[in-house]
Amino acid sequence: MLRVLLPIALAVFASAGSCPNAPRPDGRCGPSFGNAGCVANSNYPCCSTYGWCGKGNGYCDANVCKGTSTSSCPNAPRSDGRCGPDFGNAGCDTKSNYPCCSKYGWCGNGSGYCDSNICSGGKPSPSPSSKAPAPVPGTNGIKKYLPESQFNQLFPNRNPTYTYQHLVSMAAKYSSFANSGNADNDKRELAAFLAHVTHETGTLVYTEEIDKSGPYAPYIGRGAMQLTWKNNYQAFGNAIGRDLVTNYASVATNADLVWWSALWYWFQNGLHGPAGQKNQFAQTTRTINGAMECGSNPPNTQGDPHRVALFQQYCRMFGVDPGTQLSCKN
């Protein structure tokens, strides 16, 4: 990621310790917040040193809580297809096509849902409205909402590695990306994706991080979402059948991988679902770089407002309501 590193004294760290108390509804955690834990079988299982529940680097590698709380899902399915501890312990309709709750809080079926079902059991729904929207066959969210001419206007000075054709091709590997069947949600997801990509790459100018001396080098930020840290390179490489631990530079030079890495990260970290929902943009920022940009006194004070402004800009362009509560500052 493109980072602004400030003196460590500016950060407000939580002390290491156990967190025996129930998770808070605002996602705060750790000793500075009443020793509240995080929900272990949710999308935000670990407590960062800044006192936010989240996932990935900055959260689970520095988890200040020794233990977290868990929960089953005893409540009735929701009409929007969300489920699990982060959504009122709502279950999934076991008699529908979407019987299992993924670790990202969506009801569905097959790999990614039933193999990691975070709910001990769902409940039959009184109506079919609990079914999550299904991808629309034969369509592509990128081509539907972002024609090539508009892409070229948005990014006239982009690095030539970032091509529209490769973006469309890589997005086709994730058939539900900006293609859920709900136009407003699809537009918001695409707006959120573009906002983060624009921020991370300086409007698609950079394919790799400017500062190459970080503690994670040589696995510095690369690609449209600035994939960072060795474990992410290894996981992405394993997912696509390539050795990216050795060939890490290709994430910045290969026209497929600059987009593929971003979309893989998007789905791997559970951003696909929340990004399309109103009032959930803050959570996408928290997942991507929350340890550096979120909370009341983050090391990087410029990142979050820039992402929010970009998201609002793209939502206006697509003609969709961005919602409120967009900042992850609080």
UniProtKB/TrEMBL annotation:
Active site residues per record: 200
Signal sequence region: 1-16
Keywords in alphabetical order: Chitin-binding, Disulfide bond, Plant defense, Signal
SMART domains tied to this protein: ChtBD1 (SM00270)
InterPro entries recorded: Chitin-bd_1 (IPR001002), Endochitinase-like_sf (IPR036861), Glyco_hydro_19 (IPR016283), Glyco_hydro_19_cat (IPR000726), Lysozyme-like_dom_sf (IPR023346)
GO biological process: carbohydrate metabolic process; cell wall macromolecule catabolic process; chitin catabolic process; defense response to fungus
SUPFAM superfamilies hit by this protein: Lysozyme-like, Plant lectins/antimicrobial peptides
Cystine pairs: 46-60, 83-101, 92-107, 100-114, 294-328
Listed GO MF terms: chitin binding; chitinase activity
Occurrences of domain Chitin-binding type-1 (ranges): 26-75, 80-129
Domain of life where this protein originates: Eukaryota
PANTHER family, per the entry: CHITINASE 12 (PTHR22595:SF79), CHITINASE-RELATED (PTHR22595)
Name recorded for this polypeptide: Endochitinase
